[in-house]
Specification:
With 338 residues, the protein is an alpha/beta fold. It has helices at 33-37, 44-66, 85-102, 111-117, 162-172, 180-188, 212-224, 232-258, 273-284, 303-314; strands at residues 2-7, 12-19, 23-31, 75-81, 106-110, 130-135, 140-147, 150-156, 262-266, 289-291. It has a 5-stranded mixed beta sheet with strand order 3-2-1-4-5, sandwiched between helices. The chain has a 5-stranded mixed beta sheet with strand order 8-7-6-9-10. A hairpin with a 4-residue loop joins strand 6 and strand 7. The chain is globular and about 60 Å long. The structure holds 5'-O-[(R)-(carboxyoxy)(hydroxy)phosphoryl]adenosine and zinc ion. Zinc ion is lined by residues 111, 115, 136, 267-268, 300.
Length: 338
């Protein structure tokens, strides 16, 4: 079964064709980073306008790269939410029209479920049940994943998302949006032990996160040390270590408490080199296996949307053509872990 996936929830216009939820036949991502960089963050109005320009060429390229024509797919899957409403509407409306015109099943999916599914685009993938750390620009959460479509939310951030903290720190030191990769690269050249920023564990056995205190602490440090640019890589490394230590501790603790041997790390921040290295090393001590998608499937992409759409379609679950998008996180359901 070949599914066309479409993603337009934020600042990437993406289309992909995936076979049987796992084999990526094509994955095209057109990013708007250069457009938003000058404004220090994503401007929703500009994002929608650029999705409108990009969507048709991006979908055509996905078909060309897969060597398929429009009659050779079995369903259309698209991000329904959460995200920017105007941006979501472009992909959602396009996908609906395409499915209607081609008489194909239509599946509106949750962007977060897409990220969780991204580990299944790789050859080696976790065994159920496993725990997943979802780290992106808008979300930081831990899920207990029971099956492809059943999740239990164990904890989430009470304030900023991890990616947001990276982006804000980058902005503070004048490197702008998006800041994750910039801070990651700077940190590689720095000494992570030179400046110790606070670690915010909240309750040590709980799974909620908080990053706004750390952000404030970095801001205060910069105000007190005028010459900070002389050792900016040490600041980046110190900030990063404070984030990564907490993430690694909490996801491994979640695996221990749930008795899982497998963990997954997904979302844009899963591209972070220190996060990949530290969790992999720490997990070895407990015999836990770590699954992280390749870099191209960490950030927003449409292959993950096609993959989760396939799993819903296989269960016979489709979306009405009069369905609507939603901006705030919902679903990725289950009870909150106590
Ligand atoms: O998943 P994603 O592409 O979009 C959302 O759904 O939010 O994640 C984007 C976020 C941005 O905040 C970006 O700064 C962060 O992921 N990011 C990174 C790295 N690459 C991207 N954060 C830390 N280290 C990286 N290497
Ligand atoms: Zn995302």
């Amino acid at each position: 079964m070949k599914i066309l996936g479409i993603e337009t929830s934020c600042d990437e216009t993406a289309a992909s064709i995936v076979e049987n939820g796992r084999t990526v036949l094509s994955s095209v991502i057109s990013t708007q980073i250069d457009i938003h960089h000058q404004y220090g963050g994503v401007v929703p109005e500009l994002a929608s306008r650029n999705h409108i320009e990009a969507i048709v060429p991006v979908v055509n390229e996905a078909f060309d790269n897969a060597g398929l024509n429009k009659n050779q797919i079995d369903g259309v899957s698209v991000t329904q939410g959460p995200g920017l409403v105007g941006a979501l509407l472009v992909g959602f409306t396009f996908a609906k029209s395409f499915a209607y015109a081609q008489k194909l099943p239509f599946i509106g999916v949750n962007h977060l479920e897409g990220h969780i599914s991204s580990v299944f685009l790789e050859n080696n993938s976790p065994e159920f049940p496993y725990v997943a750390l979802l780290v992106s620009g808008g979300h930081t959460s831990i899920y207990y994943v029971k099956s492809h479509t059943e999740y239990e939310l164990m904890g989430q951030t009470r304030d900023d998302a991890v990616g947001e903290a990276y982006d804000k720190v980058s902005k503070m030191v004048g490197y702008g949006y998006p800041g994750g990769k910039v801070i990651d690269d700077l940190a590689k050249k720095g000494d992570k032990k030179k400046i110790k920023f606070p670690r915010s564990y909240l309750e040590k056995n709980g799974f909620d996160f908080s990053f706004s205190g750390l952000k404030t602490s970095v801001n205060r440090y910069l105000k007190l040390n005028e010459n900070y640019m002389e050792y900016i890589s040490d600041i980046a490394a110190g900030f990063q270590e404070s984030v990564i230590e907490v993430l690694s501790y909490k996801i491994l603790n979640a695996a221990k408490i749930k008795g899982c041997n497998d963990i997954a790390i997904v979302g844009g921040v899963a591209a972070n080199s220190r996060l990949r290295e530290k969790v992999t090393n720490d997990a070895k001590k407990y015999g836990i296996n770590v699954y992280i998608p390749s870099i191209e499937y960490c950030g927003d992409n449409a292959a993950m949307i096609a993959s989760i759409g396939y799993l819903y379609l296989k269960k016979g679950l489709t979306t009405e053509l009069n369905g609507d998008v939603y901006s705030r996180p919902k679903v990725v359901s289950g009870k909150k872990h106590k």
